[in-house]
Structure formats: C-alpha cells, structure tokens
Amino acid sequence: QLQLVESGGGLVQPGGSLRLSCAASGFTLDGAAIGWFRQAPGKEREGVSCISSSGATANYGDPVKGRFTISRDSAKNTVYLQMNSLKFEDTAVYYCAAQARADLYCSTYSSDYTSWGRGTQVTVFS
Question: What is the DSSP code (8-state) at residue 103?
Fold first, then answer.
C-alpha cells in the first residue's frame, strides 16, 4: 500500500523551529518530486516548498523563503522540511505530496501531485 506519513508538527512559539518529516512506505521516493503544502482554517491550500527527485532543485513559496529548507534522504526514503523563525501565520496543517517525475523539476501547485499524506498540525502561539 502506497502511503505518505507526515510527522514533526506541534506547538512552538514565534521565532522557534520545527522539522517536519514525510516518510514513504510501499514505494520509493527516488523517482518522485515531493511537495510540502499547508492549509490554515478558512484558507485555501498553499504551496510551501518542493524538491525534485534528484534533490538538485528546490523551490519555495514567497512567505517562507529564507526561513524554510527542504531536503531529502534517499536512504531513509524521507523528505524533510526544516522550519525556522516561525511566525503566527505559519500555523496550519502541513501536507506532503508526491508526483512521479524523475527530472530536475518540481512544482508548488497542488494539482500536479497525485499522492498525499494526511497532514501534521503546526501551531505557532505565544
């Protein structure tokens, strides 16, 4: 069974950090671009970051540039999202998604992705 599982969410104060993980089971992430998305209550799903299958390309949404870093570990079949300098507006459910493509590109458009995890909650509070 193909499955993506997010973890690492939680409660954090402004300025703090979290590292989200996206682990795959039932398939390898090596031939897939991976995207991170988030959705806050009452808002549309937003593309946060993505990484190409080789890891050579990473893209970020404007709100997180300079604060978030995406990476992948093929040996662990996992993609990470390091989130630093967190702000109140980063509060959302974060999802990872996979798109089967083995090239240098990745997308932050949710419609390009076919496999999704169930999400992990990130709450920034003071």
Answer: S
